[in-house]
Amino acid sequence: MSSWASGLPLAALLLVACSSTAAASTYTVGDGSGWTTGVDYTSWAASKNFKVGDSLVFNYAKGLHTVVEVSAAEYMACTAASPLGSDSSGATTVPLKTPGTHYFVCSITGHCGAGMKLAVTVGGSSSPATPTPTTPRTSPTPTTPYTTPATPATTPYTTPTTTTPYTTPTTPTCAGGGGTTTTTPGTTPFMAYPSAAGLGPAALAGFGLVWFVIVQLALL
Q: In the structure, what pLDDT confidence band is assigned to residue 62 with cuts at 50, 70 and 90?
């Protein structure tokens, strides 16, 4: 294997390292004007594309100015009561480690109002928050309320009462159209013969025939 081929892995590592270094940029605040009063730092920052990993370099006269990182509220009010970081060395380098907007002012009285204030927006996004798992809403299962079944009404058993139908006794009648004769118990019934007036035409004819036969027999 040639020495050129054996040097390929090392060259690849150096290339990656150089690429990573080239990705990060260093910006000198205010460029040639540096960090001082009377400079429009809003316009200067608007022309830049800041990323996480870049750095800001503040050049100023030591003891005459300061570099203080503050909150958005203090940046608007030009105060530095609760600084997030500060330096007065005259050559301050601030690494931009997190995305979002970073605010810087000079804490010397009147300097922030004179224009020594800088807001830079760093690109990139923080890791998205892990969504909290939610339990899906489920419709309640309808339940049938428990009810005690009604006891059916029962008709008490009764023994039917056997009744003998009432009948009126019939008085026997004597055949022959002679009417009825009431018989007193212990006496011989009196036989009543019907009169001629109570006989029909057939009966009269028969009766007359009998007498005719009797008379004829008597004449013999």
A: very high
Structure token digits, residue 31: 């460029």
Burial class of 9 by CB neighbour count within 10 A (0 to 12, 13 to 18, 19+):
exposed
The three-class DSSP label of residue 212 is: helix
Cβ-Cβ contacts under 8 Å for 81 (sequence gap 6 or more) = 74
- CA 136 to chain CA centroid, nearest Å: 10
Instruction: Give pTM, 2 decimals.
Output: 0.49
Instruction: Sketch out the chain's domains with CATH numbers.
Output: 21-125 (2.60.40.420)
First-last CA distance in the chain? 193
pLDDT per position as a tens digit, 4-28: 334 444 544 444 444 444 579 999 9
Q: How far is CA 146 from the centre of its chain?
A: 23
Cβ burial, residue 119 (10 Å; 0-12/13-18/19+): middle
Among the listed residues 30, 27, 108, 118, the one whose alpha carbon sits nearest the alpha carbon of residue 70: 118
